[in-house]
Structures are given as structure tokens and as C-alpha cells.
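ok trying again, last paste got cut off:
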Amino acid sequence: MKKIFTLLLVSTVMLSFSSLVGIEEVVAALKSGNAAQVAKYFDNTVDITLPEKSNSYSKSQAEVILRDFFNNNPVKAFSVIHKGDNAGSQYFIGKLVTKNSTYRTTVFMKQRGDKQFLQEIRFEIE
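nice, full thing came through this time. structure:
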């Protein structure tokens, strides 16, 4: 019985750690304005909301949209304001400071198996 409990505890900790790793890597990529690094976590389709447009895109289209956004708005800083989770989904809200403006940024991710998938990212002018 002790072995089963220990195995369950270790599995839960490992799964929690793997979900945090994905979020932390996306946060690091946002801090550097690295669209390719963020795109590593994109789901098959990604909802992107920008001040001038909002749509669902394929992985490759979403990476191009995000790269264009970062090229037009060079990132100066990014900080996480809040993190949360709900039934296998994680999200975080942050403040993205760029050369042109400051954006409230919201990222929604979904855990499937041992991998995190970014399903939605929003940039709203503060």
C-alpha cells in the first residue's frame, strides 16, 4: 500500500512539474519576444487576439502572426501577474511592455498526456 501511495505521489508531482515547465518556457519566450519558442507549445489551432484582429490560426500561421506582432512591437519586458489552473487547463495573465505600448497578455494552455499545448493568447492594450 505504501508503494502505491508513493508512486501516486511521485506521479502527481512529476505531472505538476511538467505542466509548470511548459508555462515557464512560454513566459521566458514572451520576455524575449521569441515567437518560435512560443510556437513550440502551440496546439493544432491557436486563437490569437490582437488589438487590430482576432482569429483562429494553424500552428504555422499563428507563429507568423506572433512573429509579426513582436517585430512591430519589440518586447522590453514581460511579467506574470497571475497564474491559475482548472481541470487540466492552466492560464496566466501578464503585462507585456513593448516599444510601442503595454499589453495585458492572457495565455491559456491545456495539458494532454505529458505535454502542454497553448490554445489561446490575447494581447489587449492597457
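cool. Residues 2-125 form a domain with the Nuclear Transport Factor 2; Chain: A, fold (CATH 3.10.450.50). Residues 5-10, 13-19 have pLDDT under 50 and may be disordered.
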